[in-house]
């Protein structure tokens, strides 16, 4: 423990020494904002024209440059905005603050043009990282004409999506429980609705989404596979604005604007943002799918509602305080009128509130940010009487608080130092009833604390070195977990770059999904237990923490307007703690420790020119687990989401004299998922203590015999084509109407969703689904 703390302290002192060893330089700092809305301009270039250096703004629109005393000219530029030029006179050891406002360009730009972020690629490691903006989200043909993060995540290299109904995302070999999902700093334990095409996040409220598929730095902890970090916009500082949208799937609304308007462009003020959406697919699907027959003609049993609200207090110097809250609901309710016997009745409810802040000290070049938040997630799955195998009512709860404070220093030549402290408390409970009658009840609490430091140094625009270190403490295990990580990049030239990242990752969250389920909507969460756990070979593990080791490399090549990215990767999951689902075997422990190995290679290509946008991502992966089978034998088998090949093609074209037509298409294909086959059936006669009971005449329940090989079978190939067409009407200077016609699953491919083990009936994913969406913006 003392050795780990000493290592972190030494690393922090060295990095701080580098940051402070700037002689008598002065500092130019500030924020870059959209002049029309006041929204921070993220990842915007701020160049020193007569200093041959520069930086990029962060997610807060903040920048800081350390320079020798003198007079400097700063130029700020971003795609879709007029450039801004300001002159600054800098004295030794002085700190000069500037607030730069960019005007949206009056010259009409190419409708599908997306900034290549060339400076970002040259100055940041960027291994396994994808940044998504609302503009990119809307290039996809969306189900129901409703663009959503859930649909865009599916086209990111290394991401596997398990289906339209009850679908989950598996990122480069990791399960959903091994992926951290954050909304403005709050952990979201289930971001996807039961109709897997939609998430809880409102597209129009998103500022950006950062997806880390492997090798992420020490800023993020307590997850062993991937991170999805969602940041929302602040409210419009100048006027009331919003959208109202209606489709056959849902209605949604967003309204934002000033509560206290700034008296000048760089003054203080208060803004608000409110979003809400509600689905009615369980009702409309009865008409939409009346011609499909059962089970679709009885209606798709999915409904959800989401609410998010935010108030922002803006200081004149760029500091701000956000107070926000959310309430997300999802339900799949079956009744006697439906034949959807393969899906259990379940519902979940997530709610939370919190505050985030950004402080830009007047006399310092640092940026301070932090959070304090509370959240709670409940999921229940009720018994379905129509299914004789489903005798497992289940419930899970996850709740707690999260608090953090971070300090960031923007150093010369795109270098950066960031360190912080986090504290969180977590309570989990789980009730799970085994089919044989064994009841599992788990309840746990933990307080976690962490310190981290990351340092990025850019050597002469050629070599980028980014070491980081995280030290995390888990109270329920009384365990300190040191986690060193590193990233490097070498710019061969302006068009070819090499990169690599890796590190150690640990977490104390356990999922309850079982490898024997063909599909499983229920995903419980529990903390790592304090009891002894054995690995598949019968050895007691040294720690109940789940661990993983990442290694990912990359090659970036820009050929004219084509951007290529090739990334081979490997993740070794040294320990995956699981609930013991076969407690009838000799080992009756509540938990067992498995291991996993995931490796693959992903290739992506992007082309953007004038009216055309093209995106392609293809990948190969191999994911296997080693654990105990039902007889207590060690077995290595493919993970339930181990589809060896996954490919996506997205294309968009802007047409019309006034560029008011958008046509988009997406094609997805992936290899079959594995599943455990059914070998036979038996009568499971209950054991009773009654002396009058006669086992030879008693009626038992129907049990299933599984083969010795776990996930020895494969379903069929999945593929689907989606199309959409959008027409924009400008109804006034400040209002417009978008009409989108979309078709999901154009050629009505019957992709397998579920196979009933008793009747062998195949339930398919969504059939062809045409829809019309109206979106009014003001």
Topology:
Blueprint lengths: L1 H19 L5 E9 L10 E4 L4 E4 L5 E6 L2 E8 L6 E7 L4 E8 L15 H6 L5 E4 L1 H4 L11 H5 L5 E3 L7 E3 L7 E5 L2 E2 L18 E7 L13 E7 L8 E6 L3 E11 L8 E11 L1 H8 L14 E12 L5 E13 L12 E15 L6 E17 L11 E17 L5 E18 L5 E21 L3 E12 L4 E13 L4 E12 L1 E3 L13 E3 L18 E14 L2 E18 L11 E19 L2 E17 L5 E5 L6 E11 L5 E10 L3 E2 L4 E5 L16 E5 L7 E2 L3 E13 L5 E9 L7 E4 L6 E3 L4 E9 L1
Parallel strand pairs: 1-7, 11-14
Antiparallel strand pairs: 1-4, 2-3, 2-5, 5-6, 8-13, 9-10, 11-12, 13-14, 15-16, 15-45, 16-17, 17-18, 18-19, 19-20, 20-21, 21-22, 22-23, 23-24, 24-25, 25-26, 26-27, 27-30, 28-29, 30-31, 31-32, 32-33, 33-34, 33-35, 35-36, 36-41, 37-40, 38-39, 41-42, 42-45, 43-44
What characteristics describe this protein?
single chain; 778 residues; mainly beta; five-stranded mixed sheet; 5 helices; 45 strands; globular
Describe this entry's structure for a reader.
It contains 5 helices and 45 strands. The chain is mostly beta strands and 778 residues long. It is globular and about 90 Å long.
The total beta strand count reads 45
Measured distance between first and last alpha carbons: 57 Å
Total of DSSP H or I helical runs spanning 4+ residues: 5
Query: In one word, what is the shape?
Result: globular
Mean residue pLDDT: 83
Please give a quick description of this structure.
Helix content is 5%, strand content 52%. By secondary structure, it is mainly β. It has a 22-stranded antiparallel barrel. A five-stranded mixed beta sheet has the order 8-13-14-11-12.
């Amino acid at each position: 423990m003392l050795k780990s703390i000493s290592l972190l302290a030494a690393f922090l002192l060295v990095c701080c020494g580098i940051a402070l060893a700037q002689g008598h330089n002065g500092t130019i700092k500030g924020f870059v904002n959209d002049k029309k809305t006041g929204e921070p301009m993220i990842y915007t270039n701020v160049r020193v024209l007569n200093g041959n250096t520069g930086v990029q703004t962060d997610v807060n629109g903040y920048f800081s440059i350390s320079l020798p005393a003198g007079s400097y000219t700063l130029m700020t530029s971003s795609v879709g905005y007029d450039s801004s030029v300001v002159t600054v006179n800098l004295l030794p050891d002085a700190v000069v603050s500037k607030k730069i406002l960019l005007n949206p360009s009056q010259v009409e730009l190419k409708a599908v043009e997306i900034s290549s972020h060339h400076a970002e690629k040259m100055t940041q490691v960027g291994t396994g990282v994808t940044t998504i903006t609302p503009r990119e989200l809307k290039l996809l043909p969306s189900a129901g004409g409703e663009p959503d993060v859930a649909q865009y995540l599916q086209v990111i290299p290394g991401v596997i999506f398990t289906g339209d109904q009850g679908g989950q995302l598996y990122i480069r070999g990791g399960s959903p429980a091994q992926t951290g999902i954050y909304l403005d700093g709050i952990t979201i334990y289930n971001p996807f609705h039961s109709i897997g095409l939609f998430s809880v996040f409102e597209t129009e409220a998103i500022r950006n989404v950062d997806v880390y598929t492997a090798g992420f730095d020490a800023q993020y902890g307590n997850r062993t596979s991937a991170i999805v970090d969602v940041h929302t916009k602040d409210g419009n500082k100048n006027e009331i604005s919003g959208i109202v949208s209606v489709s056959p799937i849902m209605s949604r609304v967003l309204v934002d604007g000033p509560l206290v308007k700034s008296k000048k462009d760089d003054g203080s003020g208060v803004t608000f943002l409110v979003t809400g959406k509600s689905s009615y697919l369980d009702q409309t699907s009865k008409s939409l799918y009346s011609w499909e027959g059962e089970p679709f003609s009885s209606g798709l049993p999915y409904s959800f509602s989401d609410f998010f609200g935010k108030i922002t207090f803006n200081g004149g110097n760029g500091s701000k305080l956000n107070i926000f809250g959310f309430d997300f609901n999802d339900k799949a309710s079956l009744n006697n009128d439906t034949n959807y016997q393969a899906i259990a009745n379940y519902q979940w409810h997530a709610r939370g509130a919190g505050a985030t802040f950004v402080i830009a000290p007047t006399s310092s070049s640092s940026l301070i940010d932090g959070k304090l938040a509370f959240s709670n997630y409940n999921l229940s799955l009720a018994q379905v009487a129509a299914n004789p195998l489903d005798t497992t009512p289940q419930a899970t709860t996850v709740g707690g608080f999260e608090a953090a404070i971070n300090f960031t220093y923007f150093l010369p030549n795109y270098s950066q130092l960031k360190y912080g402290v986090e504290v969180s408390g977590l309570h989990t409970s789980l009730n799970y009833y085994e089919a044989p009658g064994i009841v599992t009840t788990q309840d746990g609490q933990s307080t976690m604390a962490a310190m981290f430091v990351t340092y990025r140094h850019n050597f002469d625009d050629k070599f980028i070195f980014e070491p980081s270190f995280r030290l995390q403490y888990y109270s329920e295990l009384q365990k300190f977990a040191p986690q060193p990580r590193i990233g490097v990049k070498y710019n061969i030239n302006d068009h070819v770059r090499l990169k690599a990242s890796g590190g150690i990752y640990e977490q104390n969250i356990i999922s309850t999904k079982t490898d024997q389920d063909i599909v499983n909507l229920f995903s419980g969460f529990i903390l790592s237990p304090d009891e002894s756990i054995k690995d598949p070979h019968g050895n007691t593990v040294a720690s109940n923490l789940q661990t993983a080791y990442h290694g990912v490399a990359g090659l970036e090549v820009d050929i004219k307007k084509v951007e290529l990215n090739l990334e081979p990767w490997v993740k070794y999951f040294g320990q995956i703690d699981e609930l013991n689902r076969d407690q009838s075997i000799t080992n009756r422990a509540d938990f067992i420790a498995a291991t996993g190995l995931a490796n693959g290679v992903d290739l992506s290509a992007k082309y953007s020119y004038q009216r055309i946008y093209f995106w392609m991502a293809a990948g190969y992966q191999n994911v296997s687990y080693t654990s105990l089978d039902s007889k207590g034998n060690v077995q290595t088998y493919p993970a339930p989401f181990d589809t060896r090949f996954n490919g996506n093609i997205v294309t968009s074209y802007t047409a019309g004299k006034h560029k008011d037509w958008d046509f988009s298409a997406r094609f997805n294909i992936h290899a079959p998922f594995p599943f455990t086959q059914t070998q036979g059936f038996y009568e499971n006669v209950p054991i009773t203590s009654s002396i009058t009971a006669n086992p030879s005449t008693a009626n038992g329940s129907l049990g299933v015999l599984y083969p010795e090989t776990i996930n020895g079978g494969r379903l069929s190939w999945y593929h689907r084509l989606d199309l959409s067409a959008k027409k924009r009407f400008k109804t006034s200077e400040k209002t417009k109407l978008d009409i989108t016609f979309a078709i999901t699953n154009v050629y009505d491919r019957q992709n397998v969703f579920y196979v009933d083990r008793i009747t062998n009936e195949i339930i398919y994913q969504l059939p062809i689904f045409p829809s019309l969406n109206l979106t009014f913006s003001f």
